[in-house]
Amino acid sequence: MADSVISTQEERLAQATTPRERALALVELVDLLAHRDPARARQLGDSALGAALAADDSWLEARARLSRANALLGAADVGRVLDEMQTAMRTFEALGDRRARAWALVLIAALHVYSGDGVTAAELLQEVLPEIRKRGDLAVLARALNELANAHAIQEDPGRALQLYREAADTFRSAGDNLWMAFVLQNAAYVHCGLGDRALAAGNREEAEVSYGRALALTREAAELPNPEDNVIRAYAEGMAGRALIGLGQPLAALDHLRTAVLTARTAGDRRAEGAHLIETARALDAAGRTQDGLRAALRAVHLLEEVGDRRTLAQALEVASTLSEQVGDLAAALAAQRRFHALSQELDGERAKARMELNALRLDVQQARAEAERRRTEALMDPVTGLPNRRDFDAQFGQLVARTTGSIALALMDLDHFKRVNDRFSHLVGDDVLRVCARLLRESSRDHDLVARFGGEEFAIVLPGAEPQIALVVCERMRRAIAEYPWDTIHEGLEVTASLGCVVGLPGTTTQELLTEADRQLYAAKAAGRNKVMPEPGADSDS
Predict the structure, then answer these.
(1) How far apart are CA 87 and CA 69, in angstroms?
(2) pTM of the predicted structure, to 2 decimals
(3) Quick check: is 458 catalytic?
(4) What are the tens digits of pLDDT across the range 34-52?
(5) Which of the residues 358, 458, 459, 485 is marked catalytic?
(6) Tens of pLDDT along 172-189?
(7) How far apart are CA 117 and CA 151, in angstroms?
């Protein structure tokens, strides 16, 4: 019986009436099932992509591919994961969707972890984490921290891994996601169990007990979390408790926890977890002297994990089945299981090696796609002749500057006098040279934090945040003189260029439209006064 969250999502899917609604519902359901039932998640992922294509929505298609990649990652289907991620990343880069792009990069890092490349995974996550933190997206941040902890864990850096697991757990708590918080706590418990195993192998029983004890404490913390998916949390907590108790040499106590883990995972519909708990059950039964029962549990795990399609955990089950078959004297079965284990291990190792190479290629592809998307965004906001922000970019930046100003803000509109004559007499190429020189002179005459833009045609806009009226007029006069005194004959003999400027200073509460209207009025006043002037003239009241 599926847990309540999955049931709720299935109800949403049943109520969907349009391709878009159906695709969105399927995407969310695939995300929920990706780590519980990868086989079903893959099937639904295909349906989600079909619905997204029917909706003719490029973003939704990319999001569906990302969900399919997440499900395929759980099934260790590396090749298809890479294909889906590559297609999704290109779309997100082109659309400028930074949140989806960040989520995709987290999944790519997870694939690096799977391939055994913790160093590259950590580098990728360290690169994207500042952007994720800046955006304040707790859900994506927590997943990124969890994967970064995983990267450190496989690099044999348990101390740093445990710090990051705690930060990830706290972030999931802040995001209100107790299910994933429980998963992260189990990851940390697993690291403590590994430390306990090492200490035990080194003959340090006391240190081992401390590590196993910490693992048990984390499982209790996870089990006590309130969540609508209590069965899922309880199954993982009970399973990890059993794992720790096996290490402590208490197989009977471990079996009590593991039986509960298996039954609870089955009730929650988490077949992948059920298989993993059966493996630990087999080990506990063997440690308790019930090797034949342990073998049956291992074989059940093999059968279940084959159905689910989790080849990584299946390899573990085959190894345990081989060992226990040998112990009960069934050498033929032991050899068969061992051969399957080695074949599967080699297959997975080969895929990991191939994945590392393909991931490096994907990383380069992502960087190129990002650079191309950034180039297109820049071109869309930049005037190609002067290199200044265009009208579209000016409108956006001007609105932001006015909205957040706490003092005065000046706006000047500048028009090149008789510019049509320049184009008609000297050519449009000379006209373009004039525009480029004027843009440079305006930048040189303004401050670093001022906004200089091409407003349209031969007109420019200059925004001076914080400038008082007389300061703004002084700057405008400096710009006018810079243009009037420039040696234009170096561009073409007989060329002369002047400019007229209209300036206005607004206070908090002044709207962009009010500023533009008054600056335009002052610009026309400068033209009416004979051109090559700044209006209002210095000394006049220029407040809006």
Answers:
(1) 11
(2) 0.59
(3) yes
(4) 766 667 888 888 888 888 8
(5) 458
(6) 989 888 878 888 998 999
(7) 8
